[in-house]
Amino acid sequence: MDLIIRNGRIVDGTGLPAYQGDLGIADGRIVHVGGRIAATAAREIDAAGRVVAPGFIDPHTHFDVQLLWDGEARPALEHGITTVVPGNCSLSLAPLKAEHRPRLVGMFQQIEEMPNAAFDGAFEWTWESFDGYLDALRAKLSVNVAPLAGHSVIRLWVMGDAATERAANAEELAAMQDLLRRCLEAGAIGLSTSFVDVDENLQPVPSRYAHFEELDALAAVLGEYGRMLQVVPEFYATDITLARVDQLAELSLAHQIPTTFSPLFDSAANPDNVSRVMARVEEQMARGARVWPQVQTRPIDISFTFDVASLLFAATPGWYRTMRLPREEKIAALRDPEQLEALIAEAEPGGDTGRFARVKVRAVTRAEDETLVGRSLGEIAAERGSTPARVMVELSLANDLDACFVATDLGHDDPARVGPLLAHPLVHIGASDGGAHIQSFATYGDTGYLFSRFVRDRHDLTLEQAVKKITADTARIWGIPQRGLLQPGFAADVTIFDAEAIARGDEVAAHDMPEGGMRYVRGAQGIDTVIVNGAVAWNAVDGYTTAATGQVVSA
Amino acid sequence: MTLSRARAFTTARPGEDWPDIARRSLADLDESAALEALKSWNLHLFLRQPRGRILGCDVIFTEPPRSDGG
C-alpha cells in the first residue's frame, strides 16, 4: 500500500454509524476499509480522534477561470473539498470561439463578479473546444473537476449574435445538439442553463432566449448519456419556481436524466417559499422525476464598496448605473446635489429609510471614521440627523470610495428553519457559488459551517448524515462514479477532520488574485488532511503539496 | 401518480407574441380581455424593458395565483 490511515473514526459516506478502523490506499484507490491493517506503507497517518471521511464534493462552483492558474481551487481544497463542479448557470469557458471571448468575460464579470484581472494575462487562452479547455486544466489540477458545459456559450457558438435575438431554427438546434454531444464525449458532466441572469449590459444571457423546445432537444442529448441538467430558476418568485420544478420534472421523466436547480433560499420576506417548493419537489420525486433543489448552508450577506458595482444595487437601477461609472465620473455624480437627491429618492422613497438602515460599516480608511466600524447606517444617521443612504454616500466619498459596508440581513439566516431544510432527504446541499462573487462574500467554508452549526450546535443532522449529504449523495445525484464513499475500489479522495473543531474561519480580505486583486476568503478550521486520488494534497502542518493528482471526473 | 393542481402556465412558441399566446391559452375570452388577463398575471414580464418583450424561456401564467397557494 502507498498510504495507510490508522485508528480513524471512519464515516464512510453511507450514513451508517461511524466506527473505528484503518483505511489503506494503493495506486490512487481505496484497497482496504475497516479492520486493522497489519502491513505497513511508505506513508502512514495516525488519525486517532479524527474523522476519516470521503472527500467533500461541491456541486455548484464557478472555478472555471481560477483553475487555470490555481489547480487547487484555493481555499476550497483545504476545507476538505476534493471535487468541484464548475460551469454552472449557463456559463463555461468552453466551447467558445475566440471571437466570443469578450462576451463571455462580460457575462462572467456581471453574473459572478469576476474582475478583469482574472482574465487579462492570468492564463493563456489556447482553446475553443471543450476538450481543449480540459487539456488546459489537466496539467495542474490538485482538485478533481466535474465540469458542466454552459448553454449560453453553446448557443453563442452555434448562433453568434442571433443567440441573443431569437429562437433557434431546426438546423441550429441540431448543431447545438451535436456540440453538446461533443462536450459530453470530452468529459462534461452535464449542461447548465439560466432563466434569470443578465450580461454586463444588463441584457438577458443567451440561454434565456431558448424556447422550451430547445431545452427539450438538449435534454434529449443529455438523456443519451444520462447526464445532469442544472438550472438557475427565478428563486425570488415561488410560483415561477414551482413552474420550473414541473418543467424539470417533465424533462427528467421524458429523457431519464437528473436535474438540479439552485439556489433554493429560505427568507423571512417569503416565509412560505421553501415549504411550497419542497411540497412540489416531493410530489415530482414521488413520480420518479429527479429534481434536486440545491440549498446552501451559509446565511446570505454581501459586502461592498462604492468602488465596484455590487449586486446589492441591482434592485435600484439608478444606483447601479452610478456604481458602474468610471471612478472620477462616479465621484462627480455622488457630489452633484441634483444627482445625489435623485439617488436618495430612489433608495429612500417617501422617506422610507429601511433599505440601507441595517447595513453596517465594515471597514474604513480614514482614522476619524474608525469608531463607526461595526455600527449600522441607521444608528449613525439617527445621531447625525441624516438618513442611511446619505451617510453611506458621505462615508464613501470621505474614504475615497474605499469605505466597506456589509448587508447581513439578506435571508437564509434563521438556523431553526435552515437546519431542518438541510436535513430533508430530498435537499441537495450545495449552491456555494465557490470562486464567484469574490468581492461580495466568501464562498468557501460552507461545509465547515454545516458541521459546526447544524451538526455540532443544533443537531439538525448527525455527523454521518452530514457527511453522506456532501459525499455519497452528491456523487449519486450527479452520477459521478466511484467517488463519495470509503469503499474498496473507489477513488481515494479522503478528508480527515476533527468533528469537534471543524468550522469555517472568519471572512477576511485576501489579495491573492491575479495582479494582487482582492477577494473575500475564509480559512478552514479542524481539517487535518485532504487526500486526492491517493496523494496528500493539503495538510494542516505543511499546507498545499505539489502532488497535483486532481483529475477531470465525469459520469 | 396524479399531481396536485398547480397554477397553470405556458411558454411562448417560436415566433409567438402576446396576442398569439392570448388566443391560444385563453380561447374562451375575446382577445382584448385575454390580453388584459395575461398582463395582470404576468406583470413581471410586461413591466421589464423593453416593455412586453417575451423571452423563449419565460414562464407565462395563464391563470391568477391560486387561493390555496398551490
Largest sheet of chain A: 9 strands, mixed
CATH class assignment of the domain at 89-225 in chain A:
Alpha Beta
Number of helices of chain B: 3
Poorly predicted residue ranges of chain A: none
Largest interface: A-B, 29 and 20 residues
Helix fraction bin of chain A = 25-40%
User: Taking all residues together, what is the mean pLDDT of chain B?
Assistant: 91
**Care to count the β-strands of chain A?**
23
Number of helical segments of chain A? 17
How many distinct beta strands of chain B? Answer: 2
Shape of chain A: globular
Order of helices and strands of chain B: EHHHE
Assembly category:
heterodimer
Sheet with most strands of chain B: 2 strands, antiparallel
Low-confidence stretches of chain B: none
Distance from first to last alpha carbon of chain B: 18 Å
| Helix proportion of chain B | 25-40%
Structural class of chain A: alpha/beta
Q: How much strand of chain A?
A: 15-25%
Kindly identify the CATH topology of the domain at 89-225 in chain A.
Answer: TIM Barrel
